[in-house]
């Protein structure tokens, strides 16, 4: 039995990329020596084993799976703390290991390949995750060396150092994938799946852009992956003109099983209250929603239940802001909820009204806005009341919105309490709404609260102004009549005649 200790240490209160705070964590892992058994085989023996597994798989499918294995391995390495450049460099040196990962897929799911069934992206990741985690437990800090030198034994004592590559070159396989997009076959035509994508409104440039971002897309089969997804989206009511945008946002969508992943996920969300008539809009806004695992979706939903939201409210949130599923519960949703709860805000109400607020960084977005209002004399309680009344308040830019509108507010004849009552002021256009309407109010001399000036429609505002001006004119006339009554004028005339 061997014991490894893996330590990750960051400065206290050092902000992490997703808005959380780092901690020092030490994990001690025990594992049997049998896990090291793969070192006993030679590279030649592994190549023979893998060649046998690869024989039953079409070359296009094999290439696609290799690209997906590379993408997942890159993500796995980055999750262990490697920089993007180090992870990319490791992938470029790991052809044998990538082949080994794909070979494992074929060994585990051999019967599926025999009947012509392709693995989905989620199935590939589910199959590779436990294996990569076991390697991490076994090798700890020399995992990169294991991957790069597979199947040879890693060099002992080598430490992984995060360094940035000065001029990283484009991956050769990525270039090949992009070339496949415009490759002309013996018949003088482009590959069938490329022709189909052109028929639905994409051009070769767009397809290359997708392939550059996600090389596996160039190898997806037409009948097995691309066409079923496109037809499914069209059946949901998405116009054909919207297909290129959706595929560009989330090409991985074509690698997800309709029957085993997408449709069950949609049914689950519909039971929560997501409006099935709005699926076209939801997917157009955030196609990645359908590529998340059930565990990921359920984790986010369970947390919203924990906050006290009803299934109906959760359904409405997901309909308006499907991006909420992409936010990490522990690194984004929970810390943001605690931040606003400390200000006296009802977090469930805030999440229902403005879910996009929970996607903001605490350090980069929330704290600066809070400090802005504190510096201008508002209390934490008053700021909490403002965000409770207007959930989108923190989504505005300080320099391009809040500061400019605050400076103009100082020229208006209103107390600061008007903003506490009506923080929606910051949501209106300064040049097109606030300034012109306030100019009318000031010139007429009438008195209106800030809510009346801004919240009503243009026609209603004009009617209100006419009523207020008439009332003001009538009140002035009454004042004149009181000061100079008609009877007094008649007595004066009689005295002059005498």
UniProtKB/TrEMBL annotation:
InterPro entries: MTERF, MTERF_sf. Keywords: Transcription, Transcription regulation, Transcription termination, Transit peptide. The keyword Cell inner membrane does not apply. Pfam families: mTERF. GO terms for molecular function: nucleic acid binding. Gene3D superfamilies: Transcription termination factor 3, mitochondrial (1.25.70.10). GO terms for biological process: DNA-templated transcription termination. Belongs to the mTERF family. This is Transcription termination factor MTERF5, chloroplastic. It comes from Papaver somniferum (Opium poppy).
